[in-house]
Design goal:
The chain is an alpha+beta fold and 419 residues long. 36% of the residues lie in helices and 18% in strands. The relative contact order is 0.11. The chain has helices at 2-15, 44-50, 78-83, 90-97, 110-118, 146-150, 152-157, 167-174, 179-202, 209-222, 285-304, 311-329, 409-418, and strands spanning 20-25, 31-33, 36-37, 58-63, 68-73, 104-106, 131-134, 162-165, 233-236, 257-262, 265-266, 269-270, 273-278, 369-372, 375-378, 383-386, 389-394, 397-400. The strands form 6 sheets. A 6-stranded mixed beta sheet has the order 6-5-4-1-7-8. The chain contains 13 helices and 18 strands. It has 2 domains: 2-172, Creatinase/prolidase N-terminal domain (Creatine Amidinohydrolase, Chain A, domain 1), CATH 3.40.350.10; 179-418, Creatine Amidinohydrolase, CATH 3.90.230.
Length: 419
């Protein structure tokens, strides 16, 4: 991924305005309780252009008379080495990121170097920047972007800088996966297959949802995954009609189905798979009818994916198919009522984030990775079915990256019986 990061920086430089400075932060683990922190996860835009997964780093991209890439890292101390473990050295950070070791500094030098950048007479980029790019992702309308707090000193001390968001530029680049990124996603999917195979092997012997969640985590961890790509959904019976059910505490009923929506990480890249299994090993007639309807729409929607198709066209296509199926199944009386039993979209972009960044107002193009996840939900019958695959758009169509994860009724029943 080193070469990928180098190319990502080159592509980003091409999109930035002249006389600009971009500052990206790797982030840190937020405080949890007392002397504990939550697990650290690298800020994804930072990782995308650096291939670095350590906290407390800052990247500066200077585009001007002289383009420069500068990296600031933590300095190792005896205390840090003994209590927390050593951080990357300049040489190690350079090897991973492709940034010249001579352009890597310690965090203590950041303010001084930034001031030199702004020095009109002796700016290290020739002429001082007039634009400051930050990662201005808005978590919600009531919260300021985190980077505004991280860069508070810059914003306060250099009011002459015009602040702009770098998100649109990086989001555009991240829509198109390189061969290296696709391999990482494939590996994340391979981990997920191992996890679901373990679930199928144990489903008849478990008594609670959380046990099957543990079976999944156990297998993907043994397989080398960093863990969950997102909180696992293991929803039995009526729980499967709650779209983001994550309690996973209820007992299992062998007469019901259990819906899994889960994924694994590999080098920060995610998978996102949904499967719906019969807890007792065989689908009832009604369960099979609803399951097969969703499976048919899953496969037809995948076949519909190709360059030039818009997200609206893809969503409308899947929704129309599901509406016709739902009427025949007696779940709704009229097709216009489909949102009563199918209340989400057909999919989303996927990559470094499970719900990855991207532009939904433009047609699909080769290199994009997205999910296809139709579903039908009826709380009256205690049935929720969702079948989700991870799809790569190609020049002449698409490839189902998760094709090896079984989803046919006979294959699933045989797998459970064989366990």
């Amino acid at each position: 991924m080193r070469e990928h990061a180098i190319k990502a920086r080159e592509n980003l430089f091409k999109r930035l305005e002249d006389q600009s400075v971009t500052v990206l932060y790797s982030g840190h683990a937020p405080h949890r309780s007392a002397d504990q922190n939550y697990d650290y996860t690298p800020q994804r835009n930072f990782f995308y252009v650096t291939n670095l997964s350590e906290p407390n780093m800052i990247l500066m991209l200077l585009k001007g008379d002289q383009d420069k890439t500068l990296l600031f890292i933590e300095k190792n101390t005896d205390f840090k080495i003994k209590w927390e473990g050593a951080s990357l050295t300049k040489e190690e950070a350079s090897a991973l990121s492709g940034i010249d070791a001579k352009s890597i500094f310690y965090l203590d030098d950041f303010d001084k170097v930034f001031n030199q950048t702004m020095n009109y007479a002796r700016s290290i980029m020739g002429t001082p920047p007039v634009t400051l790019y930050l990662d201005l992702y808005h978590e919600s309308v009531k919260k300021k972007p985190v980077s505004l707090s991280q860069a508070a000193n810059i914003v306060e001390n250099y009011p002459e800088l015009n602040i702009k968001s770098v998100n649109a530029h990086i989001s555009y680049l991240r829509m198109f996966k390189t061969d290296e990124e696709i391999e990482e996603i494939k590996q994340a999917i391979a981990h997920t297959k191992k996890g679901l195979d373990n679930v199928l092997a144990n489903i008849k012997t478990r008594t609670h949802e959380y046990q099957l969640q543990a079976d999944f985590l156990h297998a993907i961890t043994l397989d080398g995954s960093e863990g969950y790509a997102f909180d696992t959904i293991a929803a039995c019976g009526k729980n499967a009609t709650v779209l983001h059910y994550t309690d996973n505490k209820d007992t299992l009923d062998h007469n019901e189905m259990i819906l899994f929506d889960l994924g694994a990480l590999h080098n920060n890249y995610a998978s996102d798979i949904s499967r719906t299994y019969p807890v007792g090993g065989a689908y009832s007639k009604r369960q099979k009818e609803i399951y097969q309807a969703v499976l048919d729409v899953n496969k037809k929607s995948i076949d519909f994916v190709k360059p030039g198709v818009t997200w609206k066209e893809l969503n409308d296509y899947a929704k129309d198919l599901l509406a016709k199926k739902a009427v025949k199944l007696g779940l709704i009386q009229e097709e216009k009522d489909i949102m009563n039993v199918y209340y989400h979209s057909i999919g989303h972009f996927m990559g470094l984030d499970v719900h990855d960044v991207g532009l939904y107002n433009q047609p699909l193009e080769a290199g994009m990775v997205l999910t296809i996840e139709p579903g039908l939900y009826t709380s009256e019958e205690g049935i929720g079915v969702r079948i989700e695959d991870d799809i790569l758009v190609t020049e002449d169509g698409c490839v189902n990256l998760s094709e090896a994860i079984i989803k046919e009724v006979d294959d699933i029943e045989k797998a459970i019986k064989g366990s």
